[in-house]
């Protein structure tokens, strides 16, 4: 044991950035469960944002617009706009405009948005314009999925990612084909909502789980009375709300309700490109032996019986204790004792200098052998 401890202490000094990142991830997924607000676990059915999209023109560019010979839709849009304004161009006119760019305008219409409310919009070039910096978006209708106009956008573009040093000797230009207009759209039509018409409110869990749904129902019924909530399935929970006058205060109290979610299923995420490994507290191991190059991992689990003292009225407890033996080179063996935890295996592998690729291969072998009880996802 003394020799193993010396090996661990000397090796930990050489653990690189991968080990530090992994340990941070392990601390984040600690086995301690904390209560979360209901608004962080679920959303309200029907209370959501709606995506808007529109096609428009950006003018006033400094010669960095679309090359009209290669983007005929830009020329068609300009001619159509001028005709709507009462300007008819002679037949056969060849427009050579460099200060105009065809763009797509996108935004998000939040829940309960009312006419007159301002929205931020994102403007993206769809042609071959070199830059839309300094341009002005002309009035553009923004439509929803039903092809109805819900907002109108117009304004001066602000393009980020452009900077220069104090003396002008260095310049940094990142992405000039996308800009943003703060408060650049005005809502013209609201989305109908039945939130205030029906007393039955539907909560949708962000992650479907029968155990969490049951815990949420218990917490709501304990707070607002028996029969207030009932789970429809693993995701949808029906809540009987009060009358329209008290609906807002009821939802405010419902969203701030603390619920301790159920323990999720065991999962390990492996990034094959960076070597990052993230796991949750549900991951466990059975007995196994893995050999990978000059690395070998052996995990042995044995029951440990703890008997109560005399006249203590206690119960005999049977626990599992695992011995993890990792060997990188002949004569260099690292032994760990404790619960059957993958956390201990990864820490020990990092301590003896295993590479991220070695770790990925070992975890895949453990999963294939059936000793690793977790869903293995490789990204």
From TrEMBL:
InterPro entries: Flag_FlgI
Subcellular location: Bacterial flagellum basal body
A biological-process GO annotation: bacterial-type flagellum-dependent cell motility
UniProt keyword list: Bacterial flagellum, Cell projection, Cilium, Flagellum, Signal
Major location (coarse): other
Example GO molecular function: structural molecule activity
Transport recorded as keyword: no
One cellular-component annotation, GO: outer membrane-bounded periplasmic space
Family: Belongs to the FlgI family.
Function: Assembles around the rod to form the L-ring and probably protects the motor/basal body from shearing forces during rotation.
Oligomer and partners: The basal body constitutes a major portion of the flagellar organelle and consists of four rings (L,P,S, and M) mounted on a central rod.
Name of the protein in question: Flagellar P-ring protein
Species of provenance: Methyloradius palustris
Species classification: Bacteria, Pseudomonadati, Pseudomonadota, Betaproteobacteria, Nitrosomonadales
